[in-house]
Amino acid sequence: MSSLSRDEVAKLAALARIEMSEAELVNLSSQFGSILDAVARVQELNLEGVKATSHPQPMENIFREDVVQPSLTPDQALSGAPAQEEQRFRVPQILGEAE
Amino acid sequence: MIKNTAAQMSASLAKGEITSVELTKLHLDRIADVDPKVKAFLHVDGESALNQAAAVDADRASGKKLGPLAGIPLALKDVLAQQGVPTTAGSKILQGWKPPYDSTVVAKLKAAGVVILGKTNMDEFAMGSSTENSGYGPTFNPWDLTRTPGGSSGGSAAAVSAFEAPLAIGSDTGGSIRQPAALTGIVGVRPTYGAVSRYGLIAYSSSLDQAGPFGRTVLDTAMLHEVIAGHDPRDATSINAPVPAVVAAAKSGDVKGLKIGVIKQLQGDGYQSGVQARFNESLEILASLGAEIVQVDCPSFEYALAAYYLIAPSECSSNLARFDAMRYGLRTGESDGASAESVMNSTREAGFGREVKRRIILGTYALSSGYYDAYYGSAQKIRTLIIEDYKKAFTQADVLVSPTSPITAFKIGEKSEDPIAMYLADVATIPVNLAGICGMSLPAGLAEEDNLPVGFQIMAPAMQDQRLYQVGAALEAALVSKWGGHLISKAPALGGAK
Question: 0.90 exceeded by the pTM?
Fold first, then answer.
């Protein structure tokens, strides 16, 4: 039986930038054991020498001519922004000035 | 009129028996009438729909040559960007967002003159099998309003099943078109990966996502498929090849001499008896039409569900990183001096629902150092084995078949507290996505024990989508003649049908 502690879930939530409530952390931790057991079945087979597939299609780089294409205007690009200033996305403080 | 097929509506429009404005009004009336019960739509824009319809009518009057779906109404899954129209992917984090551009699917619909009625409900970011994970409440199955329509494209499937629209667009990452089509008694197709552009399709799991058509008949579904498919330079994974002749195949429907492979691993334990019975009956019908039925073995399919629930969450944990409260969508927690990181943390907590968080955490775990090889790495290798199983099976048969869903429509709330039980709903549809091939679900009748629709799944190799329609049309014609009409005509009236 797999398990993931409340603290381990909290660490993952921090990595995923989600500020989870205590109740959510405890709930997710209690569910994770059975979810991990279900997905851990991928380890039952001997997979030595099997190639990994990341994509269903053979992929190759695709190029186009380096010419200007129609694109969004600044107003369109900013139309969904929570905040903007001088044709730029306005974001909260990103450097630790307050500290 | 609203109970007609899209092909019949198209003929009526061409003959001038009805205008697109009249047809659109009938559907808007139907939505006003039944959608308070079904809740298929998140957003209906009647005025815009009527404007689109009037434009098609004007073009027709001026003698302009129009495509077969010009003037036909359609319901659009809210996962596809439509310029200036609220697009949420069923998530609170995108509430009120109006995309500044059209997805390629929407651009193609508009170019074909299809009238977009509105955006349909879905499991948040397409993560779910019941539409209960929507941030805006569930959709109800028109066959039984206490049950789910399946998911994640449950709103689109319910809209078509309830005669709110003759056609709809969904998206299918692990079965999200085929499973709701099965549970609501209609036809749904997941085209070959790369056949329909993903430009403007809000990403859940990029190597698995694919938009596709819903209709009440195989031919209607093919007509919509032909409109939305085709190469798009804006999607680097779009296949640069001609669209398979799906409409012609839907009109021919001949299976004589065709080899149909029954996948041993996708039946038996866990499959409801009425589902198995309808499936077997369809096989007998196909045999009586001259197809040869063979048994095929796909041993690694036993591991498909486990591989999917590592690959899809891993990709989603990366894809959903874009919802960072900076450029669009929700922003919360912006008090004086709050850092960008704390705003991000607080916004993602407030904006994402339970299942989305669960999958982001699972994906973050599966990709973290120390676990990567054991989980994500192994899942990718299982994916290779599944592709090899399909390759081998397609040397023995032209198409492969199975029940679409192991069970019929389940009750609202029945599985919402048990993620594993919910994940099992996709056990028969997931292998198609992992291999990037195509699949169809069409109605095979009602299960005896609960009188609810059963779906029959057909699978074909990549870019052989026409085979789905060829076999589907043959089976549909035989079943319709046996039943004396389409299965959907047995659906409850929901009151007010004209």
Answer: yes
